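note to self: dont lose this again. the chain is below, predicted strucutre after it. 393 aa total, dont forget to put it in the shared folder this time
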Amino acid sequence: MTGPDPAPPDSDAAVPADDIEQLYDWAPCGYLSMTPGGVVVTVNQTFLTWTGLTREDLVGVRRFADLLTAGGRIYYETHLDPMLHGQGSAREVALEVVRAEGEVLPVLVNAVLERDQDGAPLVVRVAVFDATERRQYERELLRARRLAEEAEARAVELARTLQQTLVPPRPPEVPGLELAAVYRPAGSGAEVGGDFYDVFQVDEDTWVAVLGDVSGKGVEAAVVTSLIRYTVRAIAVRMTDPSDVLRDLNRVVLDHETTHFCTLALLRLVRIDDGWQVAESLAGHPPALVRTPDGTVHLFGSPGSLVGVFDQVEFTTARRFLGPGETLVLYTDGVIDAANAGGHFGEDGLRARIEASSPSPTALAQELVDEVVEFQHGSPRDDIAVLALSVPG
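---
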C-alpha cells in the first residue's frame, strides 16, 4: 500500500522574511513609499541602482517630485498629485527621473494612495518601471511616421505640380468660339486625380479640344496624364481625323507599359463662316451633349475603345456643324456617376441641368459642377471636369 500523496513542496511553509526583503529590494522595478506630502520614506535597491543615489540621499530628505525633470515636477504638482488625492491611484504616467550624474532616465509610474480607517491620507506607494527601450521604440515609430508623412506630402506636391501643367488655369482665347472649363478633384480637393483637358491651335482656323480621364490617382497617374496630353498635341498636328489620333495614342500608351488606362473625348474644330465644323472621336468616353438655341439637348458621338488596354481598337468619327447659339458640352464620368442616398445624378440629371442652364458656357460649366458637388453633399467621390464650347449667337 502506498501512503497519501505528499503535499506540494512548501505548500504550508512561510516565505522567509529575508526572501521577501530580497524580492522587494531587487525587484525588476523600482519601489518607493512616500508620505502624503511626497517625501520618500522607503526605497528599494533597484531604484537606487538605476539612479545612482543612496538611501541617505532620499529617505526622509527629498520628495519624489524633486527627482524629476523640470517638466516632470510641474506635471507632478498639477496633475499626478491631485489625481492621487482625488482618485486614489494613477497608472502608466510617463515621467523622467534625473540620475545622480545628471542623465535622464525615462520611466513609467504607477502609484496608489493608502488611507487610514478615517479616510485620511496615510502613505503613497509608487512602482517605477524603466521605459528606456519603450521610449526609444516610440521615438523610432514617430520618426518613421514623420518620414512617411513627409514622403507622402512630397508625392502629393509632385503630383499636384504635374497636374497644374495638365489642367490649364483657363482655356485659350479662340476667335468665334466661347470656351469654359471647370475642374474639381474628388473629396476635399487635396488629392490629385486623373481628369484633364486641353485646347490648342493646329493652324489658323483649326483647333483641337480634348477632355480625358486617366484611371487611378497620384504621381503615376499624373505622369500618364502628361504623356497622353503631349502625345495628343504631337499627333494632332499631322493627323486630321480624330480616330487616327486615338489609334496612334493607344499604341504609345501600350508601349509605355503602364497599368493605367484612359477615356478620352477628342474634337477637331474647323471654323467655317459663322460656325464650326466639329469632328469628334470618343475613346470609352461619354458622348458630348449639344444644346441648341431653343434649349433642347442632343447626344453627339459614339463611345469607342479605351486607350491603353487593347491592341485592336475601334474608334468612330462623328461630324456635325456647330452653329450660332449652340453649345457643346464635354464631361467626365464624375458627373453622371455622382451618387447619394437617393440614387445617381445620371444622364437625366445632366440633361436637366444643361437644359435649364444659362446659354453662357461659363455659367453652364460652373453651375453643372456646383450642382454635382452639392448632390454629393460637398464631397464628390470622383474627379469632375467639364468643358463647354459655345458659338456666339
